[in-house]
Amino acid sequence: MEKTVPTVAIVLFVKNEFSDIKGWIAWHFALGVKTLFVFDDHSTDGTWEVLQAAAKCFDIRLFRTDPLNETNFYWRQKKSFLQAVEECKGEYDWLGFLDGDEYIYIKHFDTLPEFFYRFDHADAVAFSWKIYGHSNKVVRPKLTIVESFVEHSTTNLGDNQLIKTFLRPEKLKGNYHDPHWFYDIDADRYVRPHGGKVKNPGATQEIEWSDAFVMHYICRSMEHFVDRVKKRPDNAGYWKRFACSDIKDTEPLRFVPKMNDNLIMIHKAMLKDAIQKLGSSPYTSQNIVGNNIGYSETPAVYRVKSHFDTFLCYDPSSKLVVHATEESINQNNYKILLGLIYPSLPNIITITLEMQDDDVPYLRTREGVPLYNKLFFRIDALDDGKKGLLTLAGDVYYYTCFMPPNGSCGDLYSDRLICNDNEKVTLEYVGEGSDFIDDSLPFNVFDVSSVDTIIEWIANTPNLSEDQFLRVMYALPPSVRDHISKYLIPGLLWPYI
């Protein structure tokens, strides 16, 4: 009888990971996980909302704990893990136990099923931690964790001796101590990623990174760390201990393209959920219905020209937004990007490819996240007639820097607080964008002072385009935008604004 490829599931117990949970999910499905069992410990930051959106894209079985009836964290986690084990028996060959700051990595295979195919002689595999540092990042990055933090500790850090386990669920009889080591598993059937047996029973093992390991992002950014301190008695010594910038390792980034494909699906679901939830929210009428409803507007179309006499374009080979000369664009088959400015939103520019079909790729810069098939910038009109392109990150706008071209093109980074020559652009008029007509707005977005105005607009615009929604969110006064994104639909719009 031909041997079948094993099925792999992971159980996650999580709380308040709104910014990173989508990347965690996208990563593990990129590695061939079939199902995630996710137990949310009553998150309050939007994690649950993001999980619900992601569950529309993948086989994610969602559960919520009951902290009122069970106040002890340990018992809530134990009950959750054992429930996942019972649900996996007879359906999955392997079940892994991970936290939201832990990412499994396999060095010599492309999927976890391929990796576990060679473990007929085992009932559990013990993976060493590899602890990653904070890379001196202060604020929570928009980029995924595996891309943001690529420096890790050496084997001299004793904490890396801790292991996390993947096991055959039918072998677990209910004897649970912690998610590291499972005493129901015979030690002779407990092995390391290289296939050899563990040397001794227990949660600490010899550090083994040659075949696979668990990337453990204990600190992440300072913003992450401060949130962690609020939940447990860690201190500044903890931050210093796990700085862990000894070795830079970009090898795990080989899974990023697959991860990004998954991330795109999750982002689509998040945006759709955000609009749907807002449109179904109660509101006090602002009497905007009927004002300009049914009218449309045509944008003016521009090319974006940098200080280097290069133009904003898309590189299909790298799947990145770059800038290049017209000659280089033609030689390398780059695709010119257009800038759309609508009459009702004169200080917002929408960057898009000329094509308008289902094959339009998601646009991202070198350090950006694949969020949407367009980019949105706020336009800063400068005294010298030039423009600055501003990206919104929380409450702060950053100028987009056009880096000096290196070879055929140059990268863009939206991280500058000051506008110098490299941040200045010229908008060259192309014509009217008849292919990009959209509904006009029934209100002046710059005068909006109430969330109810936005909710009423969405509720009474059944065919509201996602483009228009995102443009309005970018243009709203900060107080209104923050109320919407942080309190009405927490988590869902964080990647965008």
TrEMBL record:
<dbReference type="GO" id="GO:0005737">
    <property type="term" value="C:cytoplasm"/>
</dbReference>
<keyword id="KW-0472">Membrane</keyword>
<keyword id="KW-1133">Transmembrane helix</keyword>
<dbReference type="GO" id="GO:0016757">
    <property type="term" value="F:glycosyltransferase activity"/>
</dbReference>
<dbReference type="Pfam" id="PF13704">
    <property type="entry name" value="Glyco_tranf_2_4"/>
</dbReference>
<protein>
    <submittedName>
        <fullName>Glycosyltransferase involved in cell wall bisynthesis (WcaA)</fullName>
    </submittedName>
</protein>
<dbReference type="GO" id="GO:0016020">
    <property type="term" value="C:membrane"/>
</dbReference>
<keyword id="KW-0812">Transmembrane</keyword>
<dbReference type="InterPro" id="IPR029044">
    <property type="entry name" value="Nucleotide-diphossugar_trans"/>
</dbReference>
